[in-house]
Amino acid sequence: MIKVTESAKKQALRLMEESGDTNSFIRVGVLGGGCSGLKYELSFDNQELDDDKSFEDNGVKIVVNKKSFLYLVGTILDYSGGLNGKGFVFKNPNADRTCGCGESFSI
C-alpha cells in the first residue's frame, strides 16, 4: 500500500478539481530509466485495468499495476512546495539508492 500525506492529498484534490474530473484517481507506476535505473511515474486517470491494484489512503484513491506495486509497497507519497522544487515526492523504503532529484531509484 502507498500512504498519502496531507499535503499530497490537498494538491491532488486541487489538481483534480482544476481539471474538472473529480472522479479521477492517482495512478502510480515504475518504469525502467532515470539516472538510478528505475523511475517513478505519476498521473491522474479514471479507468482501471485488469492487472491494477487499487486502494485508498487519506481519502485519495491510488491505483498501481501489479508489477510496479512490488517496488512501491510501503512508499509514502508527499508533496513539496519548497524552494528546492515543487512537486510530488516518493519516500520509498525499498530504494537502496535514489538520485538527487528524487525521480529515480534502484533496488
Features:
107 residues; alpha+beta; six-stranded mixed sheet
Please specify the SSE layout and strand pairing:
Elements lengths: L2 E2 L1 H14 L5 E8 L5 E8 L6 E6 L2 E6 H7 L3 E5 L6 E5 L5 E2 L5 E3 L1
Parallel strand pairs: 1-6, 2-5
Antiparallel strand pairs: 2-3, 3-9, 4-5, 6-7, 8-9
| Secondary-structure element order, N to C | EHEEEEHEEEE
Distance between the termini: 18 Å
Measured by DSSP, the beta-strand proportion falls in 35-45%
Helix count equals 2
Largest sheet: 6 strands, mixed
- Rg value: 13 Å
Shape: globular
The low-pLDDT segments are none
Could you explain how this protein is built, in words?
- With 107 residues, the chain is of the alpha+beta class.
- The chain contains 2 helices and 9 strands; from the N terminus they run βαββββαββββ.
- It has helices at 6-19, 66-72, and strands spanning 3-4, 25-32, 38-45, 52-57, 60-65, 76-80, 87-91, 97-98, 104-106.
- The strands form 2 sheets. The chain has a 6-stranded mixed sheet with strand order 4-5-2-3-9-8.
